[in-house]
Amino acid sequence: MSTDKTALVLGATGGIGGETAAALLRHGWSVTALARNPGAREPVGPDPLAAARWIAGDALNPRDVSRAAEGASVIVHAVNPPGYRDWGKLVLPMIDATIAAAETFGARIVLPGNIYNYGPDAFPLLKEDSPQHPRTAKGRIRVELERRLEEASRRRAPALIVRFGDFFGPAPGANWFSQSMATPGTRLRSITYPGAPRTGHSWAYLPDAGETFARLLDRADRLEPFARFHFEGHWDPDGKWMVRAIAEMLGRPEMKVNPLPWRRIGFAGLFQQTAREIYRMRYLWRAPVRLDNSKLVAFLGREPHTSFSQAVGETLKALKIT
């Protein structure tokens, strides 16, 4: 295993992968980023990943991953299939490629986790040892993915999983904020909110999430072989804080809030796989789901935390939402 602060980031062109790579660079790590087409990157303003070494390759190709991982002590697995197509068929082969490379070089695998792993029996407060009985195929795949990481950690590939709520931040991506609530590059006339009234929800600001990984990895010698932490982030206790913050930051506090048309999505799901998968996740918006970060705070001293108003303001500005 390399003792250098050298990391391979898979998914550095995405939200959590990019923020983790940027945080590692700030903390003095050497970062290699594997991307299918590094030349297609078009950073807006100063490039926080300018110091990274970019390599062209496919995270689905074990040879590409192994080639890029040589000399790395950490592999950040923050990658998804292109356009989320065939997600259910490709996610496990992708983690298998990462595990193979990590075992070859004795590297630690770092995974951003989510709440898909859980069913209502674990609500409302999720802890690292809460039962994982997911309701969806996507959730069951996530459970299996983490099981494979735990198994690999008993061999030569320790693992670190940090579980987050729904992401939002200065990078657009496959998240509820930029795909449902506030479309990037538009003048917002109303906000579409997926959650049930008076129901709490957990949000994770991407730069805080990336900083959390960097701080944990700076203390890698104290981590368990299979280390899991939960990140509380921003807890919206009644489902109104996020929509209120968006409206106030845009200077239109009376902006209309529309419910997500779940029935329409459910009907579309009879014919479209994407709509079907979205509809099946609605239970995560119909009950309060909060993450207990007491283990993370005990380990780090405190959780990285940008104020809610600043985080929402920076997100709207970066996504050019007016």
Automatic annotation (TrEMBL):
UniProt-listed Gene3D superfamilies: NAD(P)-binding Rossmann-like Domain (3.40.50.720)
InterPro entries: NAD(P)-bd_dom, NAD(P)-bd_dom_sf, NAD(P)-dependent_oxidoreduct
One function term, GO molecular function aspect: aldehyde dehydrogenase (NAD+) activity
One GO CC term, this protein: cytoplasm
Domain NAD(P)-binding: from-to ranges: 11-129
Pfam families named among the record's database cross-references: NAD_binding_10
Designated name of the protein: Nucleoside-diphosphate-sugar epimerase
Organism of origin: Rhodoblastus acidophilus (Rhodopseudomonas acidophila)
